[in-house]
Predict the structure.
Amino acid sequence: MSGVVEAKLAELGLTLPEVVPPLAAYQPAVRSGAYVYTAGQLPMVEGKLPVTGKVGAEVTPEEAKELARTCGLNALAAVKSVVGDLDRVARVVKVVGFVASAADFTGQPAVLNGTSELLGAVFGDKGVHARSAVGVAVLPLDAPVEVEIQVELVQD
């Protein structure tokens, strides 16, 4: 384990998972200057989705919020794979979340709180970010939630 951020994760009873391998032709995360951008992260646990379907139909909003938290952990693992140490994160800049939604489901922001609350708990004030919560018809592998994050790094 390295650093303050991973110690905070451990304090929360969490560990970083292995980076989820890409499902197609992309990288899990890319650094450009002082920023790291992650690809969309599905709530994969040990190589598979724990649940599939639409939020508000097959998946409850509470389940989806937990899945969004898992997406956030996967995004942090992707960031670490590029920068080596999450203590290099100066701040979380942006979170974009997609929720596969039943036609009448409008609670996307509450679902994405799973990611936002995780980042706040781990990074404190540095975890406060801008965010978009978008309802979509379907996501890859019939995942209920997908999240991408952008972080700014401490200047070298």
